[in-house]
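Throughout our pipeline, every protein is held as a single compact record rather than as scattered files. The record that follows is passed on verbatim for readers who wish to inspect the format:
___
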Amino acid sequence: MLRFLGLPLIFISIIFMQPEIRLLETGKPVERELAGGESHQYRLNASQGQFIHVTIDQRGVDLTSTLAGPDGKTIFELDLTGKGSRESLVWIADQAGEYRLSITTSEKNAPRGAYSITLTALRVPNEQDRARFLAQNEYIAAADLAEAKEKESKQKAVEGFQKAAEIWSGLNESGMAAMTLMLAGDVGNGLRNYDQSIDLYTRALSLYKSSGDRTGESDALRAAGQSYSSSGRKEKAVTYLEQALSIRRALDDREGQGDVLNDLGVIYFELGDKRRARSIYEQALDLRKDQRGRVTTMANLGRVYRDLGESRKAIKIQQDVLSLRRALKDRAGEARALTDLGNAYADTGDVQKALDSLSRALTIQKAPSTYAISGRLYYLIGAHDEALKNLDEAMRLARSAGNRTAELDALNTASLVYWSIPDYKRAIEMLDTALPIARQLKARSFEAALMNNYGRVYSSMGDQRKALEYYSLALPILAEVSNKAGQAAALNNSGFAWESLGDKTKGLDFHRRALKLSEAIHDQRREARTHFGIARIESGNNRLKDARREVEKSINIVESFRSKLLSPDLRADYRASVQQYFDLYIDILMRMGKRQPRSGLIAEALRAGERARARSMVELLTEASADIRQGVDTTLVERESDLQDRVNNRLLEQLQTAGDKDKAAQFAALSKEIEQLTADLREVKTEIRRKSPRYAALMQPQTISVVEMQRSLLDAGSMLLEYWLGEERSYLWVVTKSSLRSYTLPARGKIEPLARRFYEQATARNQSKPNESNQKKQDRITNADNDAAQAAAELSHILLDPIGKGLGSKRLIVIADGALQYIPFAALPEPGSSGKPLIVRHETVNLPSASTLSILRREMSRRPQASKTVAVLADPVFEADDERVKQVPGKPDTKDKKDAEKQASGNDPSRVLLVKSFKDTNAAQSEFRIPRLPNTRREAEAILALTSADARRTDFDFSASRAAAMSDELGRYRIIHIASHGFLNSINPELSGLVLSMVDEKGAPQNGFLLASEIYNLKLPATDLVVLSACQTGLGKEVRGEGLIGLTRGFMYAGSPREVVSMWNVSDRATADLMGVFYHRMLKEGLSPAAALRAAQIELIQMKQWKAPYYWAAFTLQGEWK
């Protein structure tokens, strides 16, 4: 009983919850108000075939109407006109019954506004009614076509709207006809058919004029003005917009005035008249009260502030814009606001905040302008590969969307990247493509920027007169459009050109004018370059005190700029891009020190060299010793780990689809996902560094002084040789426990070719020539050995003769620069020794910098002792047809074996990755195969024989795997020895690594490529020495000022204070012999690694078959020598 009594109560409550549905009666208007999120429901009864006509007067709100038939199916959804106008809806009933009309606001968050709705007619249709019905149907069909993506559909929409307009015009409904022509023009604009759109707007304008609709007349003038602007006819656009503005003023329509003023501001901004644009935007902002319109003008005003050099104002206003866009839930607008904010941050030198903003923008919307700006930022910090990647994407998207301005921006920046690389031919190609676009768009600022960039390219090519011609073309345009940043750049560049022509007075004048402008707009990057230009001239004039003061200002600015970058890679790239500032600074200090020997300036120059050398590595080692994630929100740390796993997994998935045409779409989708995940991971890592309580203190590690080197690093038997290669002259500092001496050496341009010549000739055995006979090969190698010896002698004369007998028999700690990092100093002849190599009398050790050793020693003092002696990974299995696969019990049958071989040599992800690395190095000339290194087993067995079973770990064959190398257990061993192939990838250093077992016991593929990035993540808390008995493991990507970024610093970051690595590929037989002696001297005779390596190399020199430096000199000790 109670159950049944409850049912009517529920039924009654449901009735009361439903919205009121009002009956519409002919000729009886209903007055109501409606706000965003609300809806009003109406009903009307019609017989089959009756004509229904409803009018809605939208007084304070823009409405959308939805009509449903008696069967409940939607007939149409219309929003024909905007706020303040009348909607006219018609239908001929195709069935009898009750029709429902739903009224909602067109904007979700619209404020409350009034409207009136009237059932104007309900009757048997006459001829005019049928025509009106036909016009509306044409309109609805055209509106649907306009929403389609296909160009053909949109063009049909234009035609459909025109048909509807023609019918309405025949019915004397000029307002509806004009409105429909306006919509046709809007679709034409989207198709970039600007002339067609202007014609349609002009026809609408005529109809509005004939009907006396002044608001419509203004709308048509404004639309035509926008089309003229989009097609590059800016002056015509201004004429039309000023007419539209005049009408809005006559109507006292403040909101309408604000809309038109905003359009005018955009045109003057594009024409380069930034001050006029600012004034107009400020007027528009006072008039516009609608939130969306107001925030648009605020964003435009922020862009003007930025271009006028008022970056801090720009940041403030764009932050407000971002907040408003988020409040309006406008995601596309939010992306634009983040892009504008990134641009403004970049101008203040806060590149990290700029990159963060742009990264967030790209997660919302892949806009070409955002990619273009990101490309510009990466260019500014010297990350050229990343810059071109972003700029290429910007150009692709811009061309697809017909966004000529974004395309122009990307081309302009691309020209600068190619100029910096340098690739002057490509730079000119970019400029030649961009210039016609700039002139077509009448983008004066861009045109001037292109002239400036032409000048830079020709200046770098040595044609200073032609460069000055271009700068002189750029300067008046830049002054005309009030682009102070551009003027400063052109003046600064002119200063360098005049200096090159020998007119230092003019050069100084141009630099000082540039400096004044840069300071006025707080353009610190330009200030740094201008101070550098002044310093160069003052240095050339021998006014060294003035030169020092100027270049120190440059360095202080770039150091501040660099400190804001949280990514180690970006810091290294940026540091390389401003290396010339440090070159000049050191040169000035050294010249001053030579004049004043007791001034301490020589020591200060050496400290400046340390400050400039391997900075990112010093910071990474400092970071490695402190858990920067401690104190950071665990959610952020977990997200980092999750994103890293997802990146790795997606990368492996993608590599499995590579080259498969049937999976091209999957490959592309994974590419996009990986790009997004990588951007997210980069942002999370940056956020961790930003929020780490420890990180800020870590990023300013102290540079070691000469006194500290002598007190804490060097002993009486050691001598430190630190080289600095300069543009005009180079320097050598020689530091012992009790002395500091310095020497002036020839310019980089003389030393580096000799170093490259030695390396090329010393490694001639690794080169193969097609169809070369054994005799010809032997003759070639003999000639190469002789030439290598000659190059070594010439290098020794330049690099070591200045020290002469001062070398004694001391241990030599070499801190090399540039191409000298590829040279094993042990192979250079001792001065005055009749060709005996340095190794005969000296241990030789390599360091990235003295500051690096200081940090390594500090960390070693805190380390636990290793509980075991040596772990060896050797003789891995690379191919499925290796004989060891056949020897495994339970091996697959022949068919399965062939399938396994095919799989192991095909789409295994790590193999695909390895092939890519191999091909990037130009090492592969044909089918990719990894040869077995049988002598590494003999090498490893000899090492293991020197230790007890309980103190060693052995990983041979399939056990010599990536999993074994990444095992935490390895960190318990004092020595880790890896005997296998190593690959250097100087194009993509992240693809450098060590090759371990690529197949399992059954011949199935497995990931055997230990990447450089994975080496950084190893945990080696007690390891004293890592020996990489593999090819080229001592090399890496050369980054100016940073040195070689490769596997060595990866193992140092992981915890090992020293490594023995090779500078080139060496015969595995010679390597086995060398390693046997090295380990015997170290483990049985107790020699230090440096002394043991020297002993092994001397022993090989005495063996006839191994006496050439190729066989013994490749191996070097890097890091701590004690």
